[in-house]
Design brief:
Blueprint lengths: L9 H9 L10 E4 L6 H9 L5 E6 L2 H7 L7 E5 L14 E7 L4 H5 L25 H7 L2 H12 L4 H13 L7 H11 L11 H12 L1 H15 E11 L2 H14 L20 E7 L3 H6 L7 E7 L5
Parallel strand pairs: 1-2, 1-4, 2-3, 4-5
Antiparallel strand pairs: 5-7, 6-7
């Protein structure tokens, strides 16, 4: 197992956030909404001046332990979801926000966390192990209909109902799913076709993880929170790893890049007033980065800049 976490699009993210002309590096305030193992945070601290501040958040206690190893008075670490970043900084005070979504390599590669279908371990999947129910606890109590809906909605798995029924059947037989390999083997029996190179359990594990951690709800609230804390000219950088996340980010950027006008008014799209976000870029990892870090292959980074509403 390889617990080394390689931050995806590291140089591109740092450049997009603080590499632009006129950036107040000496006293900037930056939010890293997903500290993880600190790759992006450390690179950002290296670019900040002595009066700068970096507020890093993470739900994972292991990430917090890693953050506390950094002896830097400019770093403030909070045990929280990025959805609540507006509770730790003032409105319109932040120069850049980073949201690096998904899970880190150490989370995936640590069997005890229950995120991976490759290693046997307790079926937990909670990013914050201090609260909520584990994946195993939820599967032991949820209805077949709810399980199927979660796997279909968050995993886009066409065999969702069959998988849910098999989970329910095992539960009735006194063999409720408790470990990652039990769930992985169950799904493999049901999913007979799969994408080339993809394990049949990929979509089911993704779906349950997203549901247990309320990742998409956090993302929607986190984007709104980021917009509220950014000052005019501040940058929002979001790195997504699957289509459900990226769809939410793309829609948010598009919605906030134009002012809403009643459809019946005779105004062409190109004449719409500007919104409070300017879309800057959409960036994918290079072929060389993907070769060095295959987990980067599905990443998409979107960048937007906050602007004052045109009146």
């Amino acid at each position: 197992m390889n617990n080394i976490h390689r931050p995806v699009l590291l140089a591109e993210a740092v450049t997009a956030m603080i590499g632009r002309e006129g950036f107040p590096a000496n006293n900037a305030i930056i939010v890293d909404g997903t500290f993880g193992r600190g790759g992006h945070s450390k690179a950002l601290l290296a670019k900040l001046g002595p009066q700068g501040r970096l507020i890093a958040l993470d739900k994972d206690l292991e990430a917090l332990a890693e953050a506390k190893k950094i002896n830097d008075p400019r770093l403030q670490i909070e045990h929280s979801s990025f959805a609540f970043m507006d509770q730790y900084v003032q409105s319109a005070s932040v120069d850049a926000v980073l949201l690096d979504l998904g899970i880190s390599s150490p989370q995936i590669d640590t069997p005890e966390r229950g995120f991976s279908f490759r290693y046997d371990g307790p079926l937990d999947m909670r990013m914050d192990t201090t609260r909520g129910v584990s994946a195993a606890q939820w599967l032991a109590s949820a209805s077949i209909e709810e399980i199927a809906e979660v796997i279909k909605t968050f995993g886009e798995e066409r065999f969702a109902l069959a998988i849910a029924r098999e989970i329910g059947k095992q539960r009735e037989e006194g063999k409720a799913v408790q470990t990652t390999l039990e769930l992985s083997n169950l799904v493999a029996r049901i999913v007979r076709t799969r994408e080339p190179g993809q394990d049949p359990a990929t979509r089911t594990f993704q779906a349950i993880r997203i549901f247990i951690n309320q990742e998409l709800a956090d993302l929607e609230r986190g984007l709104q929170a980021a917009l509220s804390v950014l000052k005019v000219g501040g940058r929002l950088v979001v790195i997504s790893f699957h289509s459900l996340e990226d769809r939410i980010v793309k829609r948010f950027f598009q919605t906030h890049s134009q002012v809403s006008i009643p459809r019946e008014l005779p105004i062409r799209a190109k004449d719409l007033p500007q919104g409070d976000l300017k879309i800057i870029a959409r960036i994918k990892p290079s072929e060389s980065e993907i070769a060095e870090n295959p987990r980067a292959r599905s990443a998409v980074m979107r960048v937007a800049e906050k602007r004052g509403l045109v009146t």
